[in-house]
Specification:
Blueprint (H helix, E strand, L loop, with lengths): L8 H11 L3 E6 H12 L18 H11 L12 E4 L1 H21 L2 E5 L3 H17 L3 E2 L6 E3 L2 E6 L2 E6 L2 E2 L6 H12 L7 E5 H9 L3 E6 L5 H7 L5 E4 L10 H10 L5
Parallel strand pairs: 3-4, 3-7, 3-9, 9-10, 10-11
Antiparallel strand pairs: 1-2, 5-6, 6-7, 7-8
Helix pairs in contact: 1-4, 2-3, 4-9, 6-7
Protein name: Phosphatase
InterPro entries: Phosphatase_SCO2771
Pfam families: Phosphatase
């Protein structure tokens, strides 16, 4: 695979818009509002493993937060059509994530990487894990024989994910991450110092007090709420299901900003 050089901030912003990782994304306004409503109604599926209590019962407050942190259209009267992610917010969050990765590398911290979106984000996590390992971090090896949500929890290239039958699974569930953390505790092994993940994998880690960096789409408000409440270090807004190679410039930018570029 050819090396992708880190783009400038301007070039990355243009790339995010062109590939629809940010800007006018594929997610519909109807889908976004439905998910915000479910989170506010207390539907745990949409909490992505976090414990939000009764603090986010106002759908309009969730929309306001998502406009601020993700860049969706702020007007509550806008009910249908296409929604947006602000690419400037994406890049700013990547800069914050880079600072967290740099701190992990400098401290030789234990890092666990995981994804509930292997069809899109697996390469991002694998490259991040490889760079952290090269910088002296321990990339946590998960215990063998773990099962959750009628599937097997396993690692590919240092990234934990869920396998059901012969297919890697797109999952929002926190249960696979919970299975990993519980198994580490049973074996008397230390928990990771940092989790880099998405969906319920990141939310579960944040709920259990582990520093976490998460990637989230504009229809997954819980991780943005989690960052607001201090349960996640950083949540990076992006469309989490475009062609995998489209994320390569973004990953190169992140690792370069973290001082982890090869």
């Amino acid at each position: 695979m050819p090396t992708v050089h880190a783009p400038s901030r301007t070039a990355l912003t243009e790339h995010l818009i062109r590939t629809r990782i940010a800007g006018a994304v594929a997610t519909s306004r109807e889908n976004n509002l439905d998910h915000y409503r479910e989170l506010a109604a207390g539907n745990r599926y949409y909490w992505l493993g976090l414990d939000l209590g009764d603090r986010w019962q106002d759908e309009d407050a969730v929309l306001e937060l998502m406009a601020e942190r993700c860049g969706v259209i702020a007007d509550p009267a806008y009910r249908s059509g296409q929604d947006t992610i602000d690419p400037e917010l994406t890049v700013a969050a990547l800069d914050r994530a880079a600072a967290t990765l740099r701190k992990a590398a400098e401290g030789g911290r234990r890092v666990l990487l995981a994804t509930g979106h292997p069809g899109g984000l697996l390469g991002v996590h694998q490259a991040t894990g490889a760079a952290l390992r090269a910088a002296g971090c321990e990339v946590v090896t998960i215990p063998e024989g773990l099962f959750a949500d009628e599937g097997r929890v396993l690692q590919i290239g240092g990234v934990a994910m869920l396998l059901r039958g012969a297919a890697l699974v797109h999952t929002h569930s926190p249960d696979p991450m919970s299975a990993i953390l519980d198994a580490l505790e049973r074996e008397g092994r230390p928990l990771p110092d940092l989790v880099v993940a998405d969906h319920g994998w990141a939310g579960c880690a944040g709920r259990r007090g582990i520093d976490a960096v998460g990637y989230a789409d504009c229809n997954d408000p819980a991780l943005f709420v989690g960052e607001t409440e201090g349960m996640l270090e950083v949540t990076v807004p992006l469309d989490d299901h475009v062609a995998p190679h489209y994320y390569d410039p973004m990953t190169a930018y992140l690792l370069n900003a973290a001082g982890l570029a090869g």
